[in-house]
């Protein structure tokens, strides 16, 4: 079983990868034509909202006591799954050829 610190590091690493994807997609949205820009912006708003939930859960984990962190990890796991699904959906949208 992972320790709290290992778990937090794992989540931060994934968040860093997602943030890199978001940066690329935000750049594309800035240069997109009007109709595509609107669709990109909608996706980005959803991703930013989901990322805020992930960050909230990450803070709870970081501040949880050693005895309570596993309880908080359940909420973090759910937020992480939802963020992963949102990223996958956005990736399909932003990386269409």
Question: How would you describe what is shown here?
Answer:
- There is one protein chain.
- The chain is mostly helical.
- It has one domain (4-94): Four Helix Bundle (Hemerythrin (Met), subunit A) (Up-down Bundle), CATH 1.20.120.
- Helices cover 87% and strands 0% of the residues.
- It has helices at residues 4-31, 34-63, 69-94.
- The longest helix has 30 residues, at 34-63.
- The mean pLDDT is 85.
Keywords for this entry:
mainly alpha; 97 residues; Four Helix Bundle (Hemerythrin (Met), subunit A); 3 helices; single chain
* Biggest sheet character: none
Number of helices: 3
Any idea of the CATH topology? Four Helix Bundle (Hemerythrin (Met), subunit A)
Cα distance, first to last residue?
A: 41 Å
Number of domains: 1
Please tally the β strands and state the result.
0
SSE class: mainly alpha
Radius of gyration: 15 Å
Task: Please write out the topology.
Layout: H1 4-31, H2 34-63, H3 69-94
